[in-house]
Specification:
Distance between the termini: 45 Å
Low-confidence stretches: 1-38
Strand content: 15-25%
GO molecular function, one term: DNA binding
Strand order of the largest sheet: 5-6-7
CATH superfamily of the largest domain: DNA repair protein Rad52/59/22
Largest sheet: 3 strands, antiparallel
CATH architecture of the largest domain: 2-Layer Sandwich
CATH class of the largest domain: Alpha Beta
Order of helices and strands: HHEEHEEHEEEHH
CATH topology of the largest domain: Enolase-like, domain 1
Shape: globular
Length: 192
């Protein structure tokens, strides 16, 4: 279904508002110069959207239409996530890289704005020492919809941040998104 130019521009403005300016994904410069740059970028993005051009936002191409074929969505999700968005965690002598769940959420909103996610189950182990969450992420494209599920497990005794269910859910969400390719390169880096 083809959208009119005004509908595409309106949809892009809504998406722009929802996901914020591109610098929210990377470094934020000084606020006064950043605000002026943001206004210029927004005008440029809107002008390109009215022309029906795909727009580049912080290294990520954003389609001028909200709905796209799944192949285009997956192509964007499979791109390498900038190193500035990747965090490092050390546990039990092992260091691993990860993308915080809120960044994964914003990237999903940017590339697959019609995605949905849901907790499918929350299960405590028999000895009540850990909790596991199964999370499903569904992508909706113009041609089909697909979902991926994953599981995250957290120790009930771990109080480093948040509650155990929250940790397990965040882990399961990130892993389900990785099954679409988002941040998958981090898993391969760990093997080398």
């Amino acid at each position: 279904m083809a959208l009119s130019v005004s509908t595409q521009s309106s949809a892009l403005r809504s998406l722009w508002t929802a996901v914020g300016r591109r610098r929210s994904y990377a470094k934020v410069a000084s606020s006064s110069s950043y605000a002026a740059e943001g206004r210029r970028e927004k005008k440029q993005v809107e002008a390109e959207a009215e022309e029906g051009v795909d727009v580049d936002v912080g290294g990520f191409a954003v389609s001028s239409g909200i709905s796209r074929p799944l192949s285009e969505i997956l192509k964007q999700l499979n791109k390498k996530v900038p190193d500035s968005l990747v965090k490092t965690r050390s546990e039990n002598g092992f260091t691993s890289k990860y993308i915080p769940w809120h960044i994964v959420n914003r990237i999903m909103n940017l590339h697959a704005p019609e995605w949905s996610g849901e907790v499918r189950s929350v299960t405590y182990s028999a000895d009540a020492k850990s909790v596991s969450v199964v999370y499903r992420v569904t992508l909706y494209g113009t041609d089909a919809e697909i979902f991926r599920e994953s599981i995250g497990t957290a120790s009930v005794d771990d109080t480093s941040y948040g509650d155990p269910v929250q940790k397990a859910e965040a882990m399961a969400f990130r892993r389900a998104c990785a099954r679409f390719g988002l941040g998958l390169h981090l898993y391969h880096e760990d093997l080398s």
